[in-house]
Design goal:
- By secondary structure, the protein is an alpha/beta fold.
- It has a single domain, classed as 3-Layer(aba) Sandwich (Rossmann fold).
- 43% of the residues lie in helices and 20% in strands.
- It is built from 5 helices and 5 strands, in the order E-H-E-H-E-H-E-H-E-H.
- Strands 2-1-3-4-5 form a 5-stranded parallel beta sheet, sandwiched between helices.
- Helix 1 links the parallel strand 1 and strand 2.
Length: 126
């Protein structure tokens, strides 16, 4: 059964790129679900449990920091890996994201090989 990956990204071009990478390199390994902001992400995880969350930090309505905090407050979501996916994050942002519950960081623009390797660490069967 494919792993469910929640992509929380407000930029439709970035979502499309991520979909294309998964389609090309992990087609049968994952099922992708999109959320355009933190509000949609929190709504989704309130009734679904993805295997991995890719979280942009800078978004309208609810940014990634607030979304991570809210997701981590849901008992069934405490152990879901959350990887921050951002181009504009500085060291302080990354430290803050880690302190509130993110598990790692992927930079934009995306290095495809590193992206796939990182994702596989979280979604591949042992």
């Amino acid at each position: 059964m494919p792993a469910t990956v929640l992509i929380v990204e407000d930029n439709p071009d970035n979502r499309l790129l991520i979909h294309m990478i998964f389609q090309r390199f992990m087609k049968n390994e994952v099922r992708l679900v999109d959320a355009e902001d933190g509000v949609e992400a929190v709504d989704y995880v309130s009734s679904n449990t993805p295997d991995l969350i890719l979280m942009d930090l800078k978004m309208p309505k609810m940014d990634g920091f607030e979304a991570i905090k809210k997701i981590r407050s849901i008992p069934s979501c405490k152990d879901i890996p959350i990887l921050v996916l951002s181009a504009q994050a500085n060291k302080a942002d990354l430290e803050r994201a880690q302190q509130i519950g993110s598990n790692g960081f992927i930079t934009k623009p995306i290095n495809i090989q590193l992206f796939i390797k990182t994702i596989q660490e979280y979604v591949s069967s042992p």
